[in-house]
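Hi P.,

Sorry for the delay on this. The queue was packed all week, but I finally got your sequence through. Input first:
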Amino acid sequence: MTEQTLYERLGGVYAIAAVIDRFSDQLLKNPKIVNANAELKEWHTENYKERMPGLKFNRTLWVCAVAGGPYEYTAKKLDDGHFNLHISPEVFDEVAAELSDTLDHFKVPESAKQEVLAAFNAHKSDVTAGYLNQPR
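Then the structure:
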């Protein structure tokens, strides 16, 4: 018998989509994220309602793919998609905390939760590249 993938242990696409739905909504409620800088404030207030379904879809695909599911994430690379938002390491950590809280909300087992957070944190340098490379 083979060990289940993280994707399977998370419950598959529908369970992952539910987590992403709540997680995405919680990010919009967190002033430490929304108001972190001018670029993020604009992104979260300008046309976000029209973009949110697609963003949730792409986030769901990304998690499914990195968790070993039968999906391929084909949207922008994380560094390209986040570069102009100038996300600081502190804001990234706040987003990770929201993800952790969301996983707790859905009672994801600790071992699977830690794997999800490790996969997320593995891309910190990609997501924060725009902040780290901006002129000071």
